[in-house]
């Protein structure tokens, strides 16, 4: 299959930069366009009773500050990723907000992506069982082929 549009999910982890390298090679060999996608974590206030889990923002101001920080972090990661892409490869980038796996799959569907490339953080054992993994969810939910880079 000839891939014309490749989505690479980046989050700043070593695995996502391995995925970036693989996606760049696919694009170089096929002439495909790249989309670099960073999905910010959602920061919200609790729904009930003003009880905040440890580490959660407890005021609207803190939520806004966390969102700004996350946006800035995403821009920094995308800039770092963009610098690694050969300038002859047509590349776009996007920062979206939401659940990472659902957002990646939705973006791929609405933008006619042919291949999703995503890194694997290598969780194992209980951590993998209880936390799951974005790459696993993308593999199971995507309508496109998914390359999980290790």
Automatic annotation (TrEMBL):
GO cellular component: cytoplasm
Record-annotated UspA domain positions: 3-150
Gene3D superfamilies reported for this sequence: HUPs
Chief subcellular location: cytoplasm
InterPro entries linked: Rossmann-like_a/b/a_fold, Universal_stress_UspA, UspA
Subcellular location(s) per record: Cytoplasm
Keyword list, A-Z: Cytoplasm
Family per similarity comment: Belongs to the universal stress protein A family.
Protein known as: Universal stress protein
Organism annotation: Fictibacillus arsenicus
Classification of source organism: Bacteria, Bacillati, Bacillota, Bacilli, Bacillales
